[in-house]
Amino acid sequence: DDCREDRTLLKYHLKKMGFNDLVEAIDGASALALLKADKIDLIISDRYMSEMDGLVFYGKLQEDDNLKNIPFLLLTSENQKEKITETIRLGIRNYVVKPIDHESLERKIKRVLQLE
After folding, report:
1. Whole-prediction pTM value?
2. Among 30, 53, 46, which Cα is nearest to 95's?
3. Using CA atoms, how far apart are residues 73 and 111, in angstroms rounded to an integer?
4. Contact 94, 73 (CB under 8 A)
5. In this structure, are residues 35 and 60 in contact, taking their beta carbons and an 8 Å threshold?
6. Beta bridge pairs of residue 73
7. Does the pLDDT at position 108 exceed 70?
């Protein structure tokens, strides 16, 4: 996420859920570099970011055999049917609409990580 406040809020929710080993990036390009340097178990990406947005970032992940199977969750402020349809058409099945609701986020993360 390119918004520091949004990243801080997300980290707060994740830590509340028991996740402590967190890394963050300001856009998809930075995240790709981190993913190639470290083992990541879950990717949470904003849809709209400068440099490389979440949809392009997801596409880059799908092109890389080492990254395409990492569980992925998209955060978006979009709740319009066309935007959601576009997201699903690209293969993104898990997303949370902002503002982030802790219970919804936790439910989605459990689903993405197959903990339910």
Report:
1. 0.90
2. 46
3. 10
4. yes
5. no
6. 44
7. yes
